[in-house]
Amino acid sequence: MNAHTQRVDYSTLIREDAPEGFLVHSRLYLDEAIFEDEIERIYHRGWVYVGHESELPKVGDYRLRLIGRQPVIMVRGEDQRIRLLLNRCTHRGNTICQRERGNTKFFRCAYHGWVFDNTGALREATHVSGWGDRPPGEAQHLFEVPRMGVHRGFIFASLVSDGVSFEDYLGNAAAYLSRYCDLAPGGEIDLSAGRHGITVDANWKMQLENLTDAYHAEYVHASALAQFASLSATDKKAAFTDRGDLENPLAMQRDLGGGHSVLDSFTSNRAQGDKLRFTGSTGTLLPEVIEGVAQRIGSHEKAQWLARGGPCHIMVFPNLMLLWDAVRVIQPVAHSVTHIYYHPALLKGASEAVNIARIRAQEGGFGPAGFLAPDDMEMFERSQAGMAVRPDTWLELNRGRHIERIEDDDFGQPVRTCQNLDEVAQRGIWRHYKTVMTAE
Amino acid sequence: MSLRDEIEQFIYREARLMDQHRFEDWEALWTDDGVYWVPCAHDGEPDTDVAIIYADRAAITRRLLRMKSNAMFIQDPRSVVARLVGNVEIDPTGDDAALVYSSFNITEFRRRGHKTWLRTWAGRSEHQLRRQDGSWKMAFKKVLLVNSDGELPALGFLV
Ligand code: FES
Ligand SMILES: [Fe+2]
């Protein structure tokens, strides 16, 4: 950390009990030094989502990913194990993998020809006689990321070997990730259908705040509602409400702690019986999914309860988000540039029809030409520009503060809770952020 | 008019309608069973790989309804776009059908408040055209953006 970033006093930039309420300073989105500090503290020292096991079905499959600024090769080795290897030759530092995805037995460094296998072991250092009695060997295997944690196929990593354990990091969010997978007849999701990539000229934290912000939906996504022009006003509203997106006494917004948050629409979804749409735009495929889940768990009643509750919006700090049909991953690039990736989340064991419907649903909403995400991006970019108009001012996050309470969620976990349209999730992000950014 | 003249005219006219955001006129160029596809991975398949756009005829209509609404914020104000379409290759696939390959280069001008910027989009298109009642229609259109596999800005106009 350089001297400049040491001067930032985060406790004065996030004020939980100002006379005006819960305030966050604009500078937190605008300052390059703060961004560097975040990369170091949040992305290089904390736990970060990296990828999913289903992206690497075969030995030798790999994906290039970033943990903060560190390029890693997520690869399934000869021994079936998935490893996260730094994309850096141990000889003189050349990057050894240039493709974003592929399958390989070996990574060959183009500079002097060293060859590493897909477990990261150095297999051949060229012209070995030149090193006298100290030829390259085990010490020159590729660097492996020191800690990796896997929960239901979701792969997370930490670039440091000490600190919070993986279980403590996931905390209350673990149950939600599990529930998401439990909805698949095969009990797992599958991210093998590729991804969309988007670039946004805005700070990465805006996407975190937005994921569980139901408040914006009816405004920002008004044009998406226009596609339902033929529907009555009530049906239009239903099109959103069944995604837990509008004012709904049964839908909750929850701060899970650790920066994680959810829009908990389980109860409001269940109120709809079999009309839920996470299996596609009509909901007609739901009974089929319920049947598949019932076969796996051996109880039709339980399967019905699970599937009718559906998925909900889940944000796992700092970069993973699960939506109805999609897994969204963010990659901070600079204080005002963020990359966002959307993978359709296929349901293992479901019919082709269900999974095609999920791919189509994701395309309808997300990606650079979807009906929803581009307008969110536009809002992020407008906010980034607007905050710079008076960079010395405060943003307020006060919605629902008067009703904020601790309440048991669907898993019996006591968590801070408000109504769907409130801002307890956003306050939760910032409370956690402050803890991380002011630590030691 | 020769077949080449007819089809080139069709492709250029489609380009102009897209440039001018004439959504209804553009929609009228489709057959009733039209499919519009903008893949992410150039070697992807619709049923197994997510696309930037994969729209059957009903989804094309829904897409245009959104684009015509006045609340599509990525197009407020609308982009000014101008495209050059060229390299037109025509493979007749029957008496009244043709597969047409072409390339495009689009310059997009956008404004947000005081900020303005220019962007370039480029790629190749494949049209499957069918002659119906004497006029050519699009039964299938596939657009391969050069950067479809990368991180893209919002795409708010027709390609
Ligand atoms: S830098 Fe890789 S072999 Fe020399
Ligand atoms: Fe949104």
How do you describe this structure in short?
Chain A is α+β, with helices and mostly antiparallel strands and 440 residues long. Chain A contains 16 helices and 24 strands. In chain A, the strands form six sheets. In chain A, strands 14-20-19-18-17-16-15-24-23 form a nine-stranded antiparallel β-sheet, with helices on both faces.
The outline of chain B comes out as: globular
- Bound molecule kinds, no repeats: FE2/S2 (inorganic) cluster, fe (ii) ion
What low-confidence regions of chain B span 5 or more consecutive residues with pLDDT below 50? none
Number of helices of chain B: 3
Q: How much helical structure, as a percent, in the residues of chain B?
A: 10-25%
The number of strands of chain B is: 6
Instruction: Record the strand order, biggest sheet of chain B.
Output: 2-1-6-5-4-3
- Please, how many helices of chain A? 16
Radius of gyration of chain B: 16 Å
Query: What structural category do the secondary elements of chain A indicate?
Result: alpha+beta
Number of strands of chain A: 24
Range of strand content of chain B = over 45%
Explain how this protein is built:
The complex is a heterodimer of chains A (440) and B (159). With 440 residues, chain A is α+β, with helices and mostly antiparallel strands. In chain A, 31% of the residues lie in helices and 26% in strands. Chain A contains 16 helices and 24 strands. In chain A, strands 14-20-19-18-17-16-15-24-23 form a nine-stranded antiparallel β-sheet, sandwiched between helices. In chain A, strands 6-5-4-7 form a four-stranded antiparallel β-sheet, with no helix packed on it. In chain A, strand 8 and strand 9 form a beta hairpin. Chain A starts with a helix and ends with a helix. The mean pLDDT of chain B is 96. Chain B has a six-stranded mixed β-sheet with strand order 2-1-6-5-4-3. The radius of gyration of chain B is 16 Å and the shape is globular. Chain B starts with a helix and ends in a 14-residue tail after the last strand. With 159 residues, chain B is an alpha+beta fold. Chain B is 21% helix and 47% strand. Classes of the chains: A alpha+beta (440), B alpha+beta (159). The interface between A and B is large, with 42 and 36 residues. The complex binds FE2/S2 (inorganic) cluster (FES) and fe (ii) ion (FE2). The site of fe (ii) ion has 7 residues of chain A, from helix 8.
